[in-house]
TrEMBL record:
GO terms for molecular function: hydroxymethylglutaryl-CoA lyase activity; metal ion binding. This is Hydroxymethylglutaryl-CoA lyase. Keywords: Lyase, Metal-binding. It comes from the Bacteria. Residues 15-287 form the Pyruvate carboxyltransferase domain. The keyword Transmembrane helix does not apply.
């Protein structure tokens, strides 16, 4: 068997791209504020356009305190006006019962909760300890299940914390297993400050995989140090088939100083095409949506693929 064949066999035939741009990408985008009332229309149009590209999961808003994240205060309007496709999950971030109720009222067909592997980060982000945050989620998960709504979990700081330093892999594994045992169908493991490298990612995933199945794991890499695609390649070699990414590489975290945006969806699609891994997404269509969004926001895309394709003859 050739080396090429061995490499191909170590990779999945297909992956799911979980698009987080309309929520995680835009929530901290400073240029969104210049649009004023037009920002809501931009979000609705963006989600409608993304729905035409072949995506199956689009994180479309967040039902959180408008004082904490004012850019998501219009999520109810967004959910009420998007043109839904029956084969797409339109998800919402719902950190508490009030948020879940709002998501149910606008027929979000998936919700997400979030916590961290770091006590300090959790306190700064949601003003609770890790244990307290998990306790809060019990009723959210239970009521979501009563309404037949699947629940996903975000787990941040799986490699490093901006306050506490390196995160022990065993700690990641234990919290991830707890979230699955509580009823989450999947845990998205977030390299919040983008410091991960393939070996550290492999060490962490190997530990997590001893507790939960690969299909219940997603990866969520920020690209602060330019390692996101390498980390995704490593994760796929270890059986991970759900990748979080954001259109144009938008994103960041207000509680992680210096963290850049999420890995760009365009770059993930291009990587997968080159590896013969199916995503179901039309790269040309998606990149046009990305370029239009960046023009509307008056920003330069962080996606290398979008930049390269914009200058093709």
């Amino acid at each position: 068997m050739t080396l090429t064949n061995k490499l191909q066999l170590s990779l999945p035939d297909a992956i799911t791209v979980f698009e987080v741009g309309p929520r995680d990408g835009l929530q901290n985008e400073p240029h969104l504020s210049i649009l004023g009332d037009k920002a809501t229309a931009l979000k609705i149009a963006l989600i409608n356009e993304l729905s035409q590209t072949g995506l199956t999961h689009i994180e479309s808003g967040a039902f959180v305190s408008p004082k904490m994240i004012p850019t998501m205060a219009d999520s109810d309007i967004v959910f009420s006006h998007i043109q839904r496709h029956p084969n797409i999950f339109y998800s919402a971030l719902t950190p508490n019962l009030q948020g879940l109720e709002a998501a149910i009222n606008v027929n979000a067909n998936e919700v997400a909760i979030f916590t961290s592997c770091s006590e300090t980060f959790t306190q700064n982000n949601i003003h609770a300890s890790i244990a307290e945050s998990l306790k809060r989620f019990e009723s959210v998960i239970a009521i979501a299940h009563q309404h037949l709504i699947p629940v996903r979990a975000y787990l941040s700081c799986v490699i490093d914390c901006p306050y506490e330093g390196k995160t022990p892999p065993q700690q990641v594994a234990e919290i991830a297993k707890t979230l699955i045992d509580m009823g989450c169908y999947q845990v998205s493991l977030g390299d919040t400050i983008g410091t991960g490298t393939p070996l550290r990612v492999a060490t962490m995933l190997e530990c997590v995989n001893q507790h939960i199945q690969s299909k219940a794991i997603a990866v969520h890499f920020h690209d602060s140090y330019g390692q996101a695609l390498a980390n995704i390649y490593q994760a796929m070699q270890m059986g991970i088939t759900t990748i979080d990414s954001s259109i144009a590489g938008l994103g960041g975290c207000p509680y992680a100083p210096g963290a850049s945006g999420n890995v760009a969806t365009e770059d993930v699609i291009y990587l997968c095409q080159g590896l013969n891994i199916k995503t179901g997404i039309d790269l040309e269509k998606f990149t046009l949506v990305s370029q239009t969004l960046c023009q509307q926001l008056g920003i330069r895309p962080q996606s290398r693929v979008a930049l390269a394709m914009a200058h093709r003859p």
